[in-house]
Amino acid sequence: MVSAPSLPETTLAPISLISLLSRRNQLAVNQGIIGQQAAYDNGKYMGSFDRSDYDAFKSVIADALGSEAFCDERKIPYSTDSAVLIDQAQMQLNLSDETKARILESLKPEEIIPHLMYADAAEAAVWARVRDLSQEVFDAHCTGTVRALVLREDANRAKRPERSAKERSYEPAADNAKTQSAIAFRETLSALLLREWHTAIAVTEPFALDRLAAISDFTEKFQRSGYVMSDGGLSQQMADRIAEIEAKMPGQVALVRTKLLAAVERENTNFPFELEKRGTPEFLELLTPSKKVVFAAEQGSVTMNYLPAVMTAVLIAE
Questions:
Q1: pTM score, two decimals?
Q2: In terms of domains, do 161 and 257 share one?
Q3: b/e map of 286-315 (b: 16 or more CB within 10 Å)?
Q4: 3-state SS assignment for residue 211
Q5: What pLDDT is attached to residue 76?
Q6: Same domain flag for 157 and 187
Q7: Are strands 276-280 and 78-79 parallel, antiparallel or unpaired?
Q8: Which of 38, 100, 165, 269 is 20 to 30 A from 28 (CA-CA)?
Q9: How many domains does the chain divide into?
Q10: 94, 91, 76: which is closest to 12 by C-alpha?
Q11: C-alpha span between 45 and 28 (Å, rounded)
Q12: Do residues 96 and 119 lie in contact, with contact meaning Cβ atoms separated by under 8 Å?
């Protein structure tokens, strides 16, 4: 008897690894928003507290490594490895390689898990997120008791649709066109971009002390909360300040970026203050003695990670 040929496995589209991270950690990676940290005791939620940039970075590292291991162990296809997410968070939070190494050394094996698993549902919570991202991946890889738990929770949510809507995707209500514009622009903001604005102003308008102080204050508050009010909306103060900043900054930032790129690409550039140049013509970085990346250029795209104004001025003056 001749056996039937086996059918080739269908290639499943990978899910985005960052989408498996907790919402707080996604904000830290994408926008440098530190926010608050949830506290659990034996699986019981104990409230939230303000966290430091170190705590936020440690949370991102543990979550990213844990989510990657979760996918590897269960053959879940994913895009972008944990190292990329960790490096992105490091840049947004303005932390050094030494800090990253210290965190990696301090993490215990039991801490390296997806942060979604801290919830009562544990592994089922991660699988529910996978299902939200890709029904095909969920159907192909989630089986047994865990699958039954996810489906049972779906049935429970169907009985309470109002609560389900809030849990799954809460969109803040916009009261006018100005607020809608501010909400859209807020999504493009990041701590890294705000630090670039600060550097650009410090170089092009060194005596604009009020504006520099305002952006420093804005950056701190943005990293703490993203300037989101308790009801999910935006304060009018944020809408006004965003409109002012957005109108004035692009030209100044573009000018400084262009001059910096030209300076870095010159072979005879003398780098001030013990800055170290690292990389290739395709990808260049400037690092401080503590290995904090303060500038990066990749294929003409430039990022200034709070490169101090005095260093910037020296570089673009040559």
A1: 0.73
A2: no
A3: bbbeeebbbbbbeeeebbbbbbbbebbbbb
A4: helix
A5: 92
A6: no
A7: unpaired
A8: 165
A9: 2
A10: 76
A11: 21
A12: no
Of the candidates 51, 47, 56, 49, the residue with the CA atom closest to the CA atom of residue 22: 56
Give the helix ranges, DSSP H, for the chain: 23-31, 53-73, 82-93, 97-106, 123-133, 135-141, 144-158, 161-168, 177-186, 191-204, 209-225, 236-265, 309-317
Residue 19, exposed/middle/buried by CB under 10 A (0-12, 13-18, 19+)? middle
- Whether residue 7 lies inside any domain: the answer is no
Domain contains 126 = yes
Contact between 56 and 70 (Cβ < 8 Å): no
pLDDT at 165: 46
pLDDT of residue 259: 79
Q: Which residue bears the tokens 């705590």? A: 55
3-state secondary structure at position 19: helix
Q: Tokens at residue 9, please? A: 């496995």
Q: What is the largest CA-CA distance in the chain?
A: 88
Q: What pLDDT score was predicted for residue 266?
A: 76
Q: Which helix (H) or strand (E) holds 298?
A: strand 293-298
Same-domain status, 231 and 199: yes
Position 28 in a domain: yes
Interacting residues of 263 by C-beta distance below 8 A, sequence separation 6+: 269, 315, 316, 318
**Which residue numbers in the chain have pLDDT < 70?**
1-10, 36-38, 40, 43, 119-121, 155-186, 226-250, 305-306, 318
Half-sphere exposure of 65 (CA within 13 A, CB side): 16
CA angle at 189 for the pair 187 and 192, rounded to the nearest 5°: 140
Residue with tokens 């300040």: 241
Report the distance separating Cα 227 and Cα 235, nearest Å: 7
Residues 208, 202: Cα–Cα separation, whole Å: 8
Instruction: Take residue 208 and report the two structure tokens written for it.
Output: 């604009």
What is the residue range of 68's domain? Answer: 15-168
